[in-house]
Amino acid sequence: MFSYLMEKILKFGGTSCGSVVSIQSVISIIESNFKAQTKFAVVFSAMSGVTNQLLEAGNLASKRKNIDNSIIEDIENRHFEIIKHFIPVTGQSQVIAQIRTLINELRDVLKGISLIKEISPKTSDLLVSFGERLSTQLIFSVLQQKGLPVEYVDSRILVKTNRNFGKSEVLFSETNPLIQSYFKDNSVKICLITGFIGSDNNGDTTTLGRGGSDYTASVFGAALDVREIEIWTDVDGMMTSDPRKVSAAFTIPSISYAEAMELTHFGAKVIYPPSLQPAFAKNIPIRVLNTFNATFKGTVISKESTLSPYIITGISSIDHLSLVNLQGSGMIGVAGVSAKLFTVLAREKISVILISQASSEHSICFAIEPQVSEKVKAILHREFSAEIESGDIEGIDIQNDLSVIAVVGEGMRKHTGVSGKLFSVLGKNGINIVATAQGSSELNISVVIEQKDLSKALNVIHETFFFSQLKTLHLFLVGTGLIGKTLLAQLIGQERYLAKYKGLKIKLVGMANSRKQYINESGIDLKKAIEILDSKGSEHDLTSFVADLKQLNLPNSIFADCTASKDIYQFYLGLFHANVSVVTPNNVANSAPYALCAEFHQTDAAKGQNLLYETDVGAGLLVIHTLQGVV
Ligand code: ASP
Ligand code: MG
Fold it and tell me: Relative to the CA of 14, which ligand 1 atom is closest?
């Protein structure tokens, strides 16, 4: 059997190193690996927030606002708190002294910065290195005190990089032998390694880019050919979508490197994207685990993901971006324009998030970070001034306030119709697609949409691809007379039937009657709806009710007009335009002037929404039937 010099590399992120509770969990994870006689080493990030604090302190010092003591004291206190909790009083002073030595050194660096009133990238790297050195030193002392055979490893002696301060590249030909020979000599100890930092050939401290501790873990894992790399973070692995935006998101048990790369590129922050590379090259699986839910299996990233029951693997998004559109008839057939464009962007270090070119070659459009949009505009006007002058390029437009959603999965190669499904669900919900791009690997379809639609879009896409069984319909009920009450009663009675046989979940999110109105996005209990409206509702004002409803921009929204009022139909058209279907027994509205009806039906046809009319809502089942027709 192949015997490993080292079987596993564990890496703990900032939140895992950030508090008494999390460090407790880190200790037990390390202890259980030790008890299982696993050969392993551990990489640590700085305590959560410390890297940012150090950068902030450096920035303040460079403006000669002297050294900001409150930041340093805060960092110091957080470390002391851990010592006081985990180390018996008799042992504390020695450990406190070690931490103080580092903090004093840190103060000296800040002093230097404040004296010369400048912080270079090189100094900045030295400054932030204290974050990882402090946290690793701290956890080393805690574990040592517990009697574990630990060894503190300052990764600057092993990880050699170029001098690209702030985001240095690892020199593998020097680094790998250093790591290998170090571990040959230290294979009986549990090595605790500072993440994120390295050094160049002059011995100057460098860093691997923000979030770079993951990269450190991958570099060590690859050099030592470990069986597995474990990234311990504060969420349950990689999720089908960002759980803060999509409450139905769930953990992806298994994912390929390529898929993980696409998802992280498009904003899934669980792992620092470059970290996948060294592991991928050696075919070492990376397991993403949750320090706060340590028994949960998390996500395995490996060469091939195990068969997923879903066509896609995950959905991620970049929330803010700008789209640049370069157009002109002079670009047709002129191979040089895109070559020149991307050369210029590369030279100016502008990173391009997505590119899409119409096959007419009449325009090229690409997405960038909004912070650089003004700069890009200036660069393009300068570089293409001749083409603009001659009319070959007619315009350079920049559109802001956009987001991109990437739908990712190897399964898309085998299935047709994924993009059809994607576009149709977006269309049905009135979400305008500004641009699209599909990688030729067929691993990713990206759509650029307006930022205001992002959360709605993520939710409907997630619902379509992961939970097509159960669709949520958002109901706004106006009128709580006999008809409204009957409808409520029937919704209660039919709830289970609708879920089980029709795949529908009807969520009441808004109510109004002639006195009051109430909206609650998380849903109103159907059984208590009337009382809730009475007690929590605000004064009736249908204009603001409809405005709030539109503002919420919920997918699959239905407006049930259970009134007999002739004033309501004036809102219908606006509702259609906002992509809300209307269900009503209100024949006053339906017998509205012919022109209005015609307009309803035009809107209706154009946007895929519905005006559904039931004369007899007393038999509320018909309304339910109509509701089903809406989605
Ligand atoms: N502490 C560094 C940062 O915040 C590296 C890391 O956390 O991975 O970027
Ligand atoms: Mg981090």
Answer: 7
Instruction: Please state, in angstroms and rounded to a whole number, the distance separating the CA atoms of residues 131 and 127.
Output: 8
- Whether residue 620 is predicted with pLDDT greater than 50 in this model: the reply is no
pLDDT band at 7 (very low <50, low <70, confident <90, very high): very high
H helix or E strand, kind and range, residue 508: strand 504-512
Mutation pick for ligand 1 pocket among 43, 45, 124 (CB with most ligand atoms within 8 Å): 45
Residues 6+ apart with CB under 8 A from 230: 8, 9, 10, 11, 286, 287, 289
The contacts of residue 192 (CB under 8 Å, 6+ apart) are: 41, 42, 44, 136, 139, 140, 143, 150, 151, 152, 153
Q: How far is CA 505 from the centre of its chain?
A: 27
What average pLDDT does the segment 579-599 reach? 66
Give me the percent of the chain exceeding a pLDDT of 90: 63
Which of 215-219, 297-301, 436-440, 449-453 has the weakest average pLDDT?
436-440
Q: What is the DSSP letter of 137?
A: H
**The length of the chain, given as a count of residues:** 631
Task: Give SS3 for 153.
Answer: strand
SS3 category, 365: strand
Ligand 2 center to 97 CA (angstroms): 26
d(CA 87, CA 85): 6
Task: Count Cβ atoms within 10 A of the Cβ of residue 578 and give its class: 0-12 exposed, 13-18 middle, 19 or more buried.
Answer: buried
Gyration radius of the chain over CA positions:
30
- Collect all residues with Cβ–Cβ distance below 8 Å to 601 and sequence separation of at least 6: 611
Q: Record the tokens describing residue 521, joined without a space.
A: 């996005």
In sign, the C-alpha dihedral spanning 335, 337, 338, 341 is positive
pTM: 0.76
Residue 418 Cα to ligand 1 middle (Å)? 37
Taking residues 253-270, report their average pLDDT: 88
Q: Which ligand is nearest to the CA of 44?
A: 1
**Pocket lining: 446 vs ligand 1, CB cutoff 6 Å:** no
Distance CA 448, CA 434 (A): 5
Instruction: Please state the separation of Cα 548 from the chain's center in Å.
Output: 27
pLDDT digits (tens, 9 = 90+) for 315-359: 999 999 999 998 887 766 666 778 888 899 999 989 898 888 766
Q: How far apart are CA 457 and CA 470, in angstroms?
A: 17
Q: What is the pLDDT of residue 322?
A: 96
Closest ligand 1 atom number to CA of residue 132: 1
Closest CA to 121 of 154, 156, 167, 56: 167
How confident is residue 606, by pLDDT bands cut at 50, 70 and 90? very low
Is residue 617 predicted with pLDDT exceeding 50?
A: no
Nearest-CA residue for ligand 1 atom 8 is 211
Structure tokens at 220: 């060590």
What distances in angstroms separate CA 86 from CA 76, 91, 92, 364, one per listed residue?
16, 10, 9, 59
Rounded Cα distance between 357 and 403, Å, is 18
Residue of 300, 302, 288 whose CA lies nearest to 12: 288
